[in-house]
Predict the structure.
Amino acid sequence: MRMPAGKGRGEPNPGRACVRKTMAMLSRLREVPRHLLVCEKSNFGHDKSRHRHLVETHYHNYRVSFLIPECGILSKELKDLVMDSGPYYFVKDLPLHELIAHEFINTFVKKGACYALTYNTNIDEDNTVALLPNGKLILSLDKDTYEEAGLQGRPSQYSGRKTMKFIVSIDLMDLSSKLDSKKYKRISWAFKEKKPLKFDFLLAWHQTGVEGPTMMSYFSNYRIREHQPEIALSTVTDLQCPVLQSGELGGKPEAACSARELFEWLGAVFSNAELNNEPDNFISTYCCPQPSTMVAKAYLCTITGFLLPEKIRLLLERLCRYFDEPKLAPWVTLSVQGFADSPVSWRENEHGFRKGGEHLYNFVVFSNQDYWLQLAVGANDDCPP
């Protein structure tokens, strides 16, 4: 007997296919994106300590926070450093070809550490650009822009099955020494004529050398504004703090909390979350990990802007010297968050957004100069260096 049309075994059932698609979509929505947290311990006095390298190669920093238990007021030296966190600059509709101009490279890239990042661009959707202090210009371009510009690059490692984003790396130091080369002329033609691109940029410059032109004067033909980072200073009272032991990174039952527990607790503190786990609190049921101790006062400072690694390194060094004189605090922390839509995280490691875009690190500085270093990235990132 012949089966009725559309009911044979080989015929797809549209209803079932729709159900399978829906179930697959719901399953993906329930998936928790991968987050990676790397924890290590060392000592600032060790020859192989890599604290300085980690700070200096995390280029595009959005927020810096530090917490000092048993502290009600900052020292003058520490406060002066905080207040000297800027400046940085915002340039509206800056043509990309300006960043490969010989004069710009000679004035800023070769005479210090120059940083740039496109502003209000989404790394997973838009074209984004970053200038690194080693002179590398990193472009994350959509497929159409990449093909129209005719540049040489590689597919983004987070594109998925169908490549929709491409990464282009241009070495400005090499380019500036070969202004008559075909490569420089091709790139210059691409940015000026074939596919002119304009972006809003954040710019900052750590000058090393003699006085010269400023960012404000150099880009005076464009809409440029100077900014200072936003600084929030506060004293937290009656704060329940985890008990830590510098040699116990993984914690010790009934004696010390682990690095992971501290990391979660810091996130709650910096978010101003309630930590008392009261039954009628429907926003947060989180509480301080145990064992813990109550501190009468803790000083919390948050700096927000386009923050240079050189400034952050000075801040870390000053926090290391916090214990030069006896203090009640057993430790202090310094946390640094990168821009979620930067094309790179550390060094030239490609960075993506997916469901979070986080890339950040945290130092826990102990009174004996031991430290814990915690590095965290989201789903679209390589393992931290």
Notes: The two ends are 67 Å apart (CA to CA). Residues 1-12 have pLDDT under 50 and may be disordered.
